Amino acid sequence: MSAYNWGVLMAETVIGRPRMATAAATRRRGKGLQLAVVGLVILAAVGYLVYSGLRTNVYYRTVSELQVGEVDPGRQVRLAGNVVPGSIVREEGSSVVRFQVADPGGALAVVYKGAVPDIFGPDIEVVLEGKYNPGTGFAADTMLAKCPSKFEEQAKNGGQ
Questions:
Q1: Would you give the DSSP letter of residue 150?
Q2: Which DSSP symbol is given to 146?
Q3: What mean pLDDT is predicted for residues 94-114?
Q4: CB neighbours (10 Å) of residue 24?
């Protein structure tokens, strides 16, 4: 090796990194940047899911709790109760159904527009989701009917 080459090699190592080391460091820095970007994207996605989950919070209430006024009018709530026998009125030519739900604390008028579950009828327990207005009653967007269990029926008949 000549003195000139040795001098250039020493200058590169003392003054700065050799070119190969610089390229490797750049690749490492690029990988670190990619990892940071991926981490930020994941963090943003998790943050959005938490935010949207808290924003769509729906409270579950009974008929008596709604009548006492424990829920802000117009707020989305879930309501559970039994359909009052003789209260079901279907509007002809539309999918609107008017009925009352009750619990031991009282009864409440409900208006529901949509597909009615097959099991829906008197004395069936329903879970409704919608908005409550003290003047007009409960406007339901969603209705779920609880299917009576065959085990409950057997218990009523003496376990046969």
A1: H
A2: P
A3: 90
A4: 12
For 59, residues 6+ apart whose C-beta sits below 8 A from its C-beta are: 71, 75, 76, 77, 78
The reported pLDDT for the residue numbered 98 is: 93
Q: Would you tell me how many other CB atoms lie within 10 Å of the CB of residue 53?
A: 9
How crowded is residue 160: how many other Cβ atoms within 10 Å of its Cβ? Answer: 6
Residue type, 95: S
Question: What is the number of other CB atoms lying within 10 angstroms of the CB of residue 157?
Answer: 8
Please tell me the total number of residues recorded for the chain in this structure. 160
Share of residues in the chain with pLDDT > 70 (%):
68
Q: Which two tokens stand for residue 155?
A: 């218990």
- For the record, the structure tokens of 18 come out as 């050799």
Residues 6+ apart with CB under 8 A from 147: 119
Q: What pLDDT is stored for residue 70 in this prediction?
A: 64
Query: Is pLDDT above 60 for 156?
Result: no
Whole-model pTM: value is 0.58
CB 81 within 8 A of CB 63: yes
Of the candidates 89, 79, 70, the one whose C-alpha atom is nearest the C-alpha of residue 129 is 79
